[in-house]
Amino acid sequence: MPTDDEATVQAANKAWYIALNAMLNGDPAPFADVYSHAEDVSYMSAEGGLRIGWHATWSDWQAQAGLAQGGHVEEIDNHTIVNGDMAVVQTVEKGLVNNREGVGVELVARETSVFRREDSKWKMVAHHADLLPNWIEVAGSARDA
Fold first, then answer.
1. Which of 74, 52, 51 is nearest to 64 (CA)?
2. Average pLDDT of the chain?
3. 111, 128 in Cβ contact below 8 A?
4. C-alpha closest to that of 128 among 47, 70, 54
5. Is 130 domain-assigned?
6. How many folded domains does the chain comprise?
7. Exposure of 101 by Cβ count < 10 A (0-12 exposed, 13-18 middle, 19+ buried)?
8. Does the residue 144 lie in any domain?
9. pLDDT mean over 86-115
10. Which end of the chain, N or C, is less surrounded by CB atoms within 10 Å?
11. Domain that holds residue 104
12. What's the confidence (pLDDT) of residue 30?
């Protein structure tokens, strides 16, 4: 049975998927509520590269949303570890995301998210996705892998 902290971390992780699906359909705004705005955050996307700090991370999501052609991704399995004010959620996800021609491309990925309790709320501070060769087919090309 999950603890209260595990349940609230799971809720924060669910909010990540809501934000991810909004971004895949052109709207990056929900990421602003999910992610910490601290300068120590990091993001490693499925197209490669490493973004450090809120501003670099936010710019990446805005660029991805600008290229988005629609789709949906869902979590199919996860493992959660909570220790004090930090938590790690490892997930396996699958989805169907449209490429630039509007053709659906099936994706299966493993992702790791790190959450930190900030002002009594769990905020994502690091996210790492498998490097997906077919993500380049979806997004165009890696901007700066």
1. 51
2. 89
3. yes
4. 47
5. yes
6. 1
7. exposed
8. no
9. 92
10. N
11. 4-139
12. 96
Q: Is 145 a member of any domain?
A: no
Flag whether the pTM goes above 0.85.
yes
Element (H, E) at 83: strand 71-83
Q: Examine residue 57 and state whether it is found in any structural domain, yes or no.
A: yes
The helix or strand, by DSSP H or E, that contains position 89, with its residue range, turns out to be: strand 86-98
Q: What is the mean predicted confidence (pLDDT) over 2-19?
A: 93
Asked if residue 145 has pLDDT above 50, the reply is: no
Strand partners, 93: 75, 109
Q: For position 45, what pLDDT does the model report?
A: 86
Do 52 and 58 contact (CB within 8 A), yes or no? no
CATH of the domain at 132: 3.10.450.50
Q: Which tokens belong to 115?
A: 């959450």
3-state secondary structure 30-44: CHHHHECCCCCCEEE
User: For 40, phi and psi rounded to 5 degrees?
Assistant: -95, 5
What digits encode the pLDDT tens for the residues 60-87? 999 988 888 899 999 999 999 999 999 9
Q: Give residue 99's pLDDT band: very low, low, confident or very high (50, 70, 90).
A: confident
